[in-house]
Amino acid sequence: MPEVAWTDSVEPKPGATKPDAVVTARGVQRFFGGLRAVDVDHLEIQRNSITALIGPNGAGKTTFFNLLTGFDQATAGSWELNGGSIAGIPAYQVARRGMVRTFQLTRALPRLTVRDNVMLAEPNHPGEAVSRALVGFWKPKETETAERAGQLLERFGLLHMADEYAGTLSGGQRKLLELARAMMVNPEVIMLDEPMAGINPALTQTLLEHVVRLRDDGKTVVFVEHDMDVVQEISDWVVVLAAGRVIAEDQPEGIAGNSDVIDAYLGTHHGEAAS
Amino acid sequence: MDLHAALIAGFAAAIGPTAIAFAISALGLNLQFGYTGLLNIGHVAFMLMGAYGAAITVENGGSLWVGILIGILAAVVLGLILGIPTLRLRAEYLAITTIAAAEVLRLLVRSSWSEPLTGGVFGVQGFAGEFFALNPFDSGRVYDFGILPINGRRLFIIIVGWLLVVLLTLLLARLLNSPWGRLLRAIREDEDAARSLGKNVYARKLQSLTIGGALGAVAGVVLAIEQQNVVPDSFRPEITFIIFVIVILGGAGTIWGPVVGAVVFQFLFFFLDRLMRQAQANVPYVDEVLTAAGAAQIRFVLLGIGIILLLVYRPQGLIGNRREAVIGA
């Protein structure tokens, strides 16, 4: 792992300023009726790092993901990718700008082959325009796409399954497929919603190595996770959400001792005499 | 019973103009439903647009060829009107909207209010002269093809029609085997996944709906030309369901499935019809449980049973891929 010195220069508090923020969110709010699901005052994500987003169930982690990636409409707020606003734009345009997400429940396209799943993600395919599809002249790009897809499938250990339907993959293989697909878009930021959920421990290690390698390739990774061992092992920075708010930010070593975090997970009155 | 006559009747229907129209219509529905996953339960509305577009244009002094274009254009506009508000929403909204729109349109062209334009319940007749003027065969003559005699008028429609079916299927195959087709299948599988990968799902769904609708319009034109007669009640809702049966029978999400489905459907439908009528008239005791009118209806029952058996034992249809169908289930 490369030396990640930037973490030492950042003050461990909610809304901390990062030396090189790729994503900046300001005042992002989402109300469901009277319920305030997300209320993030300020959050910066450091470029080329792995940031874990943790928090108790119902903290708003996935909702916050949905807002940032255009899969849900924020009640208020603004957020930027590389200094350009991506607030309120459709999900597919967020992906085109360079922020790609995966889903908590994997979304393999079951009746497409594994290879087609990955090839689909090519961001600039002329053959996806109906006129070009009819006239032709997309074959060279298709060859190039197939080549790139083949490389990614090999990297994620799925090449032997390339011509099978994605519906025949195991749960773990589907997670790998989603990572390969996300990489095919060639994004700057990859948002992983519980990448380790429902994966057996042996595969978890493989998946972790793949996630670390994304960062080593220059990507920024943000992921939602419940397993604190996983968080401790791979993340550079941890952001804690509770009741929709960022209550703490720190290096993984520091976060477990943070009293606000303990309160959020275990309740405010633990260790005190019942009153 | 005369099995020979029943087979001939089935065969005549299988290659006939109605099979051609159903095949083209099914190509459109297969694009929408089989490839894109759009639940268009009002496909007959697009056929209606094609047929009336052509007929009304000629009735008002236009050329038939212009009329056909207007019919197709009208179907595309209908696709946009139905698709723009509903394709952003869940699949059910398109389903409800299309089935309602199809009935509304049929009742509208049937109403006395629109009679000056559409002819109301009587419809529009005799507008396809320009097509039949091109007929190289003698309309009055019956051409003998061994077992199946075909008159010159019908022969012309059959030849032009099947050429059109092959041409349209090949064009569609070109589209569907491209990255555009791959994107449509991805949308069918999971549109949020496609969205998360940067795909403009809405635009592709709209394209699929309108192109499929245009094919429906072409099918409507074929029906109209064959009958030289466009009446509202040719466009009842069950036509949509017959087209769905054809798509599933042939194999939803396959290139040639709709064509195979249309031919087999028409064959079975008319073969069974003839068989039932014969049984009713000739077999002892059958006439006691079945009236002549009942015999004509029982093919629908047999058809329903056939579809159930098909879905249980061959969900991929006649030419679909079994593995693919099982994954989807």
Brief overview:
The complex is a heterodimer of chains A (275) and B (329). Chain A is an alpha/beta fold and 275 residues long.
Task: Explain what the structure shows.
The complex is a heterodimer of chains A (275) and B (329). Chain A has 275 residues and is α/β, with parallel strands linked by helices. Chain A contains 11 helices and 10 strands. Chain A has helices at residues 6-9, 61-68, 91-97, 114-120, 130-135, 139-155, 171-184, 201-216, 228-234, 252-255, 259-266, and strands spanning 21-32, 35-46, 50-54, 76-81, 84-85, 99-101, 189-193, 220-224, 237-242, 245-250. In chain A, 45% of the residues are buried. The model of chain A has no long low-confidence stretch (mean pLDDT 89). Chain B has 329 residues and is mainly alpha-helical. Chain B contains 16 helices and 4 strands. Chain B has helices spanning 3-15, 17-35, 43-59, 64-86, 91-110, 115-118, 129-132, 152-176, 179-189, 191-196, 201-227, 237-250, 257-282, 286-289, 292-313, 322-328, and strands at 124-125, 142-145, 148-151, 229-230. Chain B has a two-stranded antiparallel ribbon. In chain B, α2 runs antiparallel to α11 (201-227). The relative contact order of chain B is 0.19. The chains are: A alpha/beta (275), B mainly alpha (329). Chain A binds chain B through residues 69, 71, 90-93, 95-96, 100-103, 107-112, 116-117, 119-123, 125, 127-130, 132-134, 138, 142, 145, 165, 167-168, 181-182, 184-185, and chain B through 171, 174-175, 178-183, 185-186, 188-190, 192-201, 204, 207, 211, 253, 323-324, 327-328.
